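Narrative of activities, Objective 1.

The group set out to show that a structural description can be obtained from nothing but a protein's sequence at a throughput compatible with the screening campaign. Below is one input-output pair from the validation batch, recorded exactly as produced.
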Amino acid sequence: MKNCFVILILLNFLMAVAQITTTWNGSSWSDGAPTASVDAIIAGNYTAPLNGVIAARKLTINSGVLSVNSGNLTVQNELINNAGANAVVIESNANLIQGTETLLNANIGNITIKRNSALLKQLDYTLWSSPVADQNLLKFSPATVLNRFYKYNTTTNLFNSLPNVATTNFATANGYLIRMPDTANSTIPTAYSGQFTGIPHNGTISYTMTVGDFGSNFNLVGNPYPSPISMSQFVLDNSTNITGTLYFWRKTNGVNGGAYCTWNNGIFVTNNNLQSQNPNGIIQTGQGFIVESKNAATSLTFTNAQRIANTTGQFFKTNRIVVDDNRIFLNATSAVGDFSQMAVTYIAGATNEVDEFDAKYFNDSAIALNSFLDNADYVIQGRALPFDPTDEVPLSFFAAAAGTYTIAVDRVEGLFAGNQDVLLKDNVTGIETDLKAGNYTFAAPSGKTTSRFVLKYIKNTTIWNGTSWSNGIPTAAKEALVEGDYSTSSNGALTAKKLYVNSGVLTVNSGNLIVQKELINNAGAAAVVLENNANLVQGASTIANTNVGFITVKRNGSLLRRLDYTIWSSPTTNPNQFLKTFSPLTLDERFYNYNVSTNLYNALIASNLPSATTFEKGAGYLIRMPNTSDPITPTSYQGVFTGLPNNGTITKTVTYLDATHGYNMVGNPYPSTLDASAFITENAANIESSLYFWRKINNPLDLSTAYAVFNPLGSTATASSEIPNGTIQVGQGFFVKAKSGATAISFTNAMRLGNTTGPFFKTKKVAEKSRLWLNLTNAEGFFSQSLIGYTSEATQGVDDFDAKYFNDSPIALTFNINNEEYTIQGRASFDVSDVVDLNFKTDVAGNFTIALDHFDGLFASGQNVYLVDRNTGTETDLKLSSYTFATTVGTDNDRFSLQFQKTLKVGAQAFDENSLVVYRKKEILYIQSNTVAINSVKVFDILGRQIAEQKNLNTNTITFKDLKSKHSALFVTISSKDNKRVTKKVIN
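Output recorded for this entry:
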C-alpha cells in the first residue's frame, strides 16, 4: 500500500512537469503565455513586443522567426535555436536577459543581434565587443579599411592594428577599436548598424588581463552579453582586481579633446567638448571599454548577475544618475575648441589619498585639467568627508601648444550648490578666482605643470592696488599680491604667507620683508628692490628654493680706499651676473678666490676671467675696490646683485687637506643677515668654531692681521674694523676652517635673521661671559687684538671657544695653547689664581704697548688684571694703565703672562741682558733699560775702537744718531749707577 502511494505522487509530478510547456503556433500560445517557470517553444513567426514580451524558463525556436524589436527577451535557463541564425533577431535597443543562476553557457544555435553605434562620421571609431561567439571582425564591418581594426597594447598604452582581420574573430569579453565603414558619410554623422551572428554568450565569463611594463595596466575589455550590464555591479564583483574606474571611447574625428568618457562611483566626466552624453552606469550591448588592473591582478569576471534590462539606444545616450554627493565639475577649454573635464567629489568612504574613488587620467588629449595626487593625474578624485573648507586640491594642467586657455565650472552639486566658495588659485600670478562667479582665462606655454593651479574654498589673499589692500593687510597666514607701487618707508613693513609682485615696484627701504613661503616676482628684476640694510627673510621650514623671478639687492661695503678689498658673497643666483659685471671698474687681475692647498689667494684671471665667472652660492670672492675709487678719502662701494633670491637649504663644498690647510672662503648666500652662532652650531661636525672676516685696508704702515675673528666666546677686531659678534651681513664673505674628513657645509633658513644695521659686523654684543680684550700697538700704527674669556662651557685646552690665529702678520700678541697661537682663548670658570701665558712676536724692533681695549662680566665688577713682564719683573695693572716696552726682532713666548692678583714678593730689579734692549734703525742706535736707570754707554766697532760715548745719564732711554752704516757690527757697553756693566752686540 505504501509503495502504491509513492507511485501515485511520482505520476502526479510527471504530469505537472509535462504541463509547463507552451507553444507559439504563429498566432497564439497553446497553454497561455510563458512565464519564468514555463518553457516556451516558437513554431511560427513571433514579434515582440507586438505579440507580447516573452519571459520563459527555457526557450526553443523550432520554426518561424522570433523578432525582438525592443524591450527584453527573458530566458531563465538556455535558449535553443533549431531554425538557423536568422530565426532569432534581437534588434538594437532590445536585450536577451538570462537567469542569474546560470554558470555555464548552455545556449544552442546561432542568433542575430543588431546594435547601432552612436552617430559618427567616416573617420570616427567605436569600441566594439561581441555578444556572441565566433563573430569574425571583417564580416562584422566589411567596409572598414583593413588596417583600421585595433587591439590595445597594455605594454605600450597604444592601439595596435590587427594584421589578419579576415581570419580573426572577436575574443570573448575583448574590446576592439574599429573605424566606421569607408562608405560612411564624411560630413553628416550616421549610426553604424552592427550585426553579430553566433551563439549568444551566457553565464559566468572570465577574462585574462595583461599587466604591462612600468605600471601600464590598462586593458581593453567589453560587455560579452546580448544585454546591458551594470557598471557598479561589475566593478564591485571585480573590486580586488581592478580600480573603480571605467573608460569609454567617444571621440569624433576633427573634434578637439580626449577620446574617453570616465566613470567612477556614479561620477562621469567627458574630455571631448560634450560630443558624447555621459554614461549613467550602464554598459550597453556590444560596448567595449577600458579597465585598469591593480596589484598585478590578471583576471576579471562577468556574470549574469551583472546583466540588466536597460534598452536605451545609442552608446551612452542615457540620463545621468542624480546622486546626493558634493561635486565640482571643471572644464578647461582653448580658443580653438580643445576641451577637458574633471571632477572632485566629497563622498562618504573616500580618503584624501589614492583609493577606489579616484579615476586616473588616460593621458590622450591636446589639453588636460586634472587633480594631481601621489605624482599622478586623476580625472576624478574622491575626497574625504566631513568637508574641510581649508582643504586644497592641487591641479595639473597640460597644453600641447602655447596659447590662451579658460577654466570654468561646468556644474556644482551638494554643498557646493549653496554658499560655499569654489576658488581657483593660480600660483604663478597669485590670483584667486571665484569660479562660481566667473571663469579664469590665462596664458600658458606648451607642456605640463603640476604646481600652478590649486582648487580651494577659503579666500586668503589680499591685493595692493597702489593705494590700499583689498582684503586687509597681509599676515604670515595671508598671501599678498602687489599690483602697484609699494614702499615700506611710506606704506609700512610687509609680512605675507606668500608674496606675488605682478606690477608696480616693491621697494624695501629698510627693515625686513618677511615671506613665509615663496616670493614670486612676475614684473622683472627692477620691480623688487632691497635697499642697503634691508632683508628678505623667509620661512625657517623651507628646504628648497621655490622663489620665482629675479630681484635687485643693494649692499654698501665698508668705507675703503682705491687699493682696499672686500670679501663679497652673492645673495642671488644669476647665470649672467659675473664678478666683473658686479664690479666692472675693478682691474681684471684684482678678483681672487682662495687656494686651500697653498693658503694663498689666487687671481681669477690666471684660471678663469672674472668676466666669465659667476658667483657660486655660498662662496666668497676677494674683490678690490673700483680703480676709480679715491686713493685718500674712504668711500663705500654699493654692490648691486640681480638674480633669483637664494632661499632654503644651500650646501657648499669645503676642502680639508691637513691641520694647516683647511681654510675655505665662503659667504652668506641669503638676501638677509645670518646668525653666525647658528651657522657654527649647524656645521659643528664639519668646521672649527671660529669665523674669520677680512677687514684690512691697504697701508704699508699697517702690519696687523687682515682678519677680524668671531667664535662662541666673542670677537676680535683689526686695526680698521669694528668687532663682529654674531651677525653676518648680506653679501658678506668669510673664512671657515674645515675639520678632518669634512666635505661640505650647509646654510639654512633657520639661520637667517632680520638684523638691518648698516656696516658689516654692526651687531649686538654677546653677554653672560667674563671677557677682556687686549690690544698690542706701536707708534707706527701696528694693531693686534686678542680676546680671553671665562665661561663654564670652556676648558683650559683647545675647544670651540678658542680661535686659532690666522698667522698672516709677523707682529702679534696671542695666547699659547699647546705651543700654538690663538687669537681667542676660552678658559674654564674663573679662578683668581689663574695664570695665562702670552705669545709675542715681531719682525721690527722698537717700542710696543699692551693695553686693555674693553672688558665685561666679572672684569667689569672690580676684578684686577695684571700684565707680567718676566724679563723685567714688572707687574702692570692694565685697568689702571697700559704697559710700554722695548723689544728686538724675534719671537718670545716666555716673556708675558696675565694674572689676576699681585705677586706677594717681587725680587730686586735686575740689570742684565734680559732687562736691556739694544737695536739699530738705519743710522740711529736705540738703548733702553726696562729696570734700573743707565749711567753711561760706550760704543765700539768690530775692531774694538770706541766710536761714541755718553756719561752721567741717569735715564732709561738713550739714542745715538749719525752712526755711519760702514760699521756693520757694534758692541755696546752699558753701565748702571751701581757700576753693573752689560755688553751687547748689535748687527746693522
